[in-house]
Amino acid sequence: MEMTMSCAEESRALEETLAGSFKPADTFFLIESNLPDYGGWGSGAVKAASSSGEFAPFLRHLQGTPRAKILFIRRPLADGMNFYIALTNQLEPKIYHAELDGYADLLGLDIASLAEAGAPGINGREMTQIDELYTVCANGRHDPCCAAYGAPVYQEMARQAGEDRVWQTTHIGGHRMAATLIAFPQGIVYGHVDPHDVESLVMNHRAGYILTHKYRGRGCYAGQVLDEAAHLAAGAAEAVIREEARIYGLDDLRLRDVIDLNDGQWRVSFRGRNGATYTAEVGTRMSAPRRTSCGDEPKPMPQHDVRLLAPI
User: Fold this and answer.
1) What is the pLDDT, as a whole number, of residue 48?
2) Cα–Cα distances in Å, from 137 out to 14, 69, 74, 130, 211?
3) Which segments in the chain show pLDDT lower than 70?
C-alpha cells in the first residue's frame, strides 16, 4: 500500500522556503468565538460567517477597515467574548484588548479611531493596550495538519508564554507550513514550528529578535502599503538579508523601497539601524506542482530567488 505524505510533511521534506509566504495585512481583528450556530470552525469559518446570518453584520463592519484580517480565536473550555485589535502598520505596533458584552458591540467600534494615536474605542470605551499575544493555527477542519502540528505547539506556547497570552486561531494561510503562528503586536509570522522551537521563539520575541530560520514574513512594513506581490518579495529579501548580515533585531531593519522591475523581478532595499543600505533582487517564479492542503490537487506555488546586491 502506497503511503502518501501530508501537505506539511511534503513541505518539510522539500525544505520549502518559508520567507515571503504571508500576505499583507495592516490590521488584525481577533474575535473569541466557537460559532456553534455556523458549524463551528469549518474550513472557511470567517468567510461563512461573513456571508449570512446574525454574525455577518458585525464582520462586515470590521471588513470596512482597509487591509484588515479577521481571525476567530478560542481556548479549550473557554466561553467568553474576548476581542483584540493589532495595529501593525506603525513604527511602534500595538495590540489592544476588550471584553465584549455581546458581539453587537463590534458595531460600536469606531473604525476611524484606528488611524488615531490613542486607543481604539468601542461604544465609547477605550480598549486596553497589552504587550504581547500569540495565535497558533489549530483549525483541523480546514486542514488536518493544522491540528496535528498546531495543537502541541499551542500547548507548549501556553506553557512558555502563559495561557492568557496564547490562543488557537482559525486559518491564517499556509497550512502546509504547520505549525504556523503569529506573534503580536508586530504581526510576525512563523512556520514549520515544532514544540521544541517554542521556548526560543518566545524568549527571542520578548527580547526583540526574529527567528529567521522559521520566519514566514509579517503583516506589513511600517509606513508601507504594498500590493501582495511586492509584499511577498520584500519578505523573501528581508529573511536573506537578515541571515547574511546577521541582523536579528525586530527594529534593526526598515524597509526603504520595493521597485517593480517587471516580469516577476523586484529590487528591495532595507536601511539598517547603522544607516547602511541592504539591497537584494528578488525573482518570483512558479514552483513545480505541490499540495497546498491535504486532499487538494497539487498546483504551482510562488517561489522566490533572492540575490544580494549591496555588500553585506
Assistant:
1) 75
2) 22, 14, 10, 21, 18
3) 1-3, 34-44, 140-143, 310-312
The top-level CATH class assigned to 1-225 is alpha beta
Distance separating alpha carbons of residues 263 and 229, to the nearest angstrom: 12
Helix and strand numbers, DSSP H then E, in the chain: 6, 16
Is 89 strand, coil or helix?
A: coil
For residue 126, the Cα-to-chain-centroid distance in whole angstroms is 25
Q: Beta-carbon neighbour count of residue 206 at 10 Å? A: 12
Which residues does residue 109 pair with via DSSP β-bridges, in sequence order? 122
- Cβ–Cβ under 8 Å, residues 180 and 191: yes
Look at residue 186 in the predicted model and tell me its pLDDT: 95
**pTM beyond cutoff 0.85:** yes
d(CA 210, CA 188): 8
DSSP secondary structure letter of residue 298: P
Average pLDDT, rounded, for the chain: 88
- Domain ranges within the chain, ordered by starting residue: 1-225
Chain-centroid distance, C-alpha 164 = 19
Pair 144, 43: CB distance under 8 Å: no
Neighbours of 204 (CB within 10 A): 15
Q: How far is CA 240 from CA 148, 160, 161, in A?
A: 29, 28, 28
Contact predicate 161/182, CB 8 Å = no
Query: Prior bond to 185 cis, omega within 30?
Result: yes
Q: What is the pLDDT of residues 88-112, one digit of tens each?
A: 998 899 999 999 999 899 999 988 8
| pLDDT value at residue 267 | 97
Question: Which residues, including other chains, have CB under 8 Å from residue 77's CB and lie 6 or more apart?
Answer: none
Cis peptide before 86 (omega within 30 of 0): no
H-only helix segments in 191-280: 198-207, 228-245
**CA-CA-CA-CA dihedral for 85, 86, 90, 92, to nearest 10:** 110
